[in-house]
Amino acid sequence: MRLKVVGVALVASLGFLCGCGGERPIKVSGKITINGEPVEGIKVQFVPVSGSGRPASGSTGKDGQFELTAVENNDGAFPGDYKVVLVYAPALETGPGNSTKDVMKKVNDQQVKDARKKPKYVIPVEYSTVQKTPVTQKVPTDGPVIIDIK
User: Fold this and answer.
1) Which regions in the chain score pLDDT beneath 50?
2) pTM for the whole structure
3) Domain that holds residue 31
């Protein structure tokens, strides 16, 4: 009987230590534009400045809007200071396939085809690395995050 009580107490304390009542992500949404025009297909990454913590990411739709995900879809980002990395990565349209191998071949073929085309948007290279990005953001935010690239 004593073993059962100790086991229950241990399980209860582990639940407490694993984050019950701890920090949770805060909803973060925003819009990316180039010279005021919405940009589709931008991968938005929030990377913790301190080097520790959990990054969050999202992608822009046709209207340039994004929502961040840290743990679960669109849950946001944890409180803290972040560097914001922006990379143009448009969605690939491949259609359904008969197998994983078939789908992966379609993805590869589409990537090769897209590599030959001029990109729809050009993001300055400094935005694509954590070391050089000029964009920083604090979470929680004072509303939607608006980033206009010039």
Assistant:
1) 1-21
2) 0.72
3) 18-91+122-149
